[in-house]
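Chapter summary example.
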Amino acid sequence: MVPLFCVSQDRVEGMVMEANTAEKHIALEGANVYWLYSQTGTVTNAEGLFSIPYLKEYNKLVISYVGFESDTLLVDAPKKVHHFLQPSNALDEVVVQQKRDAVQKTFFSAQNVITVNSAELLKAACCNLSESFETNPAIDVNFSDALTGTKQIQMLGLTSPYLLITQENIPMVRGASQAYGLTFTPGTWVESIQITKGAGSVVNGYESISGQINTELVKPLTDNAIFINGYGNKNGRLELNTHFNKKLSDKLSTGLYIHANRRDQKEDGNADGFLDAPLANQLNVMSRWQYQNPEMGWVSFFNVRFLNDEKQVGESNFNPYTDKFTTNAWGSEIDTRRFDTSVKLGYVFPEMPFQSFGFQASYSIHKQDSYFGFNEYNINHESIYSNLLFNSIIGDTQSKFKTGITFAYDGYDEMVNVTDYSRVDTSVGAFFEYSFTNLEKLSLTAGLRADTHNRLGSFITPRLHVRYTPWEKASLRGSVGRGKRAANIFAENQQLFASARQINIQETSGNVYGLKAEDAWNYGVSFLQGFNWLERKGNITIDFYKTNFKNQIVVDWENPQEISFYNLDGKSYANSFQLEVNHKILKNVEFRTAYKYYDVKTDYKSGSLQKPLQAQHRFFANLGYNTTPKENGSQWRMDYTLHSLGKQRLPNTSSNPIAYQLNEYSDSYSLMNAQITKVFSKKFEIYLGGENLTNYTQNNPILGSDNPFGANFDTSMVYAPIMGRMFYGGFRFKL
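The structure predicted for these 735 residues follows.
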């Protein structure tokens, strides 16, 4: 029965319901009700009821709800309104599909965003964030050098410094943490990952060039009260993760997250006298607080984290207590201590749910003390970041905008041997972003930000994303945007210190190590088509992105006796093409495959060359099988992943003695990983897996390993795994 209303003299009251053939009154909770071209609105309650002030100057009442067609009603006086919204069939279908997918692709967003949720992360060990992309073709994972075994990520043919890497939309892996920062976020802390291809949103800053990776952490309110994850592999790596969460009240929850990993076992499978993986020890502790008061419109998060990370690499007989800075044995230690804290505060206006403001702020101090043989590299990086945002609509909820201001401070104390490169970066910026969403045909996001930087000067960053639906289950996107950044040439290229190369900075009139800022435009087009085959859903994606550099800090490895840094004189571009197919081929079997082609070239002093250590052709496949869960949650999960990489151009070594020369190109190779998980109940599961099952390793990964203090020693020519076949196991317990 429809409730009766006593109509107020100055209010419009009513009920919003779902239209259905049975003519039942199905209330819609949370529907938006507002006056067109005004800032006055409300949302329906659990019974679908609403009450909104009557405004004489407005007569068009808009009613909207996700998954339903929006309606505009003509209302000239206070009265009762009983309204049925019609479901949007196309949106209903897509929502169902995305709920089931471990990797979600949106059909309606203007930006090309891929969401990786926790179910996808369980397909591999995912000990830390750098290892969370092995089963996703959007990101390429490579090794940076032959000593630390640190995995570096690439997207659209460009390395991670050209990505904006954020944690809950606050910049995180940047500056001093660029080389190892991805290893500082344990995989169990990750709730989901959003991968945006192409220039990102202006809201998050001006540094994004090839895309953005945002990590959402688990929430104390929704995470398990107790979670324990243990991991070990045959190469001596041991890990333990614990989560402890408690709901202190209806509005306040807190969590304590502890991660520890250790490797004491020395591995030298290729018998070159050097460790294949570092001896390591990390302790990572985070306290997280969540407050939410939906009745009043407030939500906030507060994090505090401390990290201590220690690595020892080099010759297997190196003893830092007796051999440091001697020629007894070559060795290196990398000790990092980091403290960071962040706060996020949001407020949604109760009577205008489409309007809100937010505040983000973070502080971090990152200290790395390291030496590589006789080379010393020490950097302290103090960072302050704040962002104030305001969100609202223009007319109705199809037209929204975000605006705000950003302040950032980065203080660097950086020493390379005896040379001091200390500096301070400060910037202030303002941004405005407009978005229009029409679920039937068109969506667009247009943004502009203006920043003033003490070393980069004043500049404008425009970005545009457009989505068009040409036919059913299709989404065609285009994007264009500018990015600008100050390169941290030493922090981003730390593998250079583990070599005999001389550092050559060819300075100009720039303000970044005497070099100019990097400046690039990214253009992209992407097409997503959903389909049904064998009565099962799937999708196919084709995308092409191009990055053109107006200026780039060229990192030149083409002379084996030195590494040169200089401003681009000519052209530098990265073209990326990807074809991806996802399909649930059987009831419990999902298949994902992709082919990628990269054309990445730069004008070096020695001529136009393809980017070194970059496979032009890559093939990816992932096959996942899950049994149907039983009532107690028990099931089997099995996953297999294949990576095939084509030949890679190697930096020029022709001036080396013959014994230390490499071929012009590497060999092609394939890697296979697999994991099987037995879920005993909703509380306990174990997993076993293997990486590099084909046991493929690179021959001679360290040039001059027979004489590490000689002129030809170089650990930077890594194009394939150093370690062979590796097996691991672990367990997960949750309560």
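To summarize the output: The longest helix spans residues 89-100.
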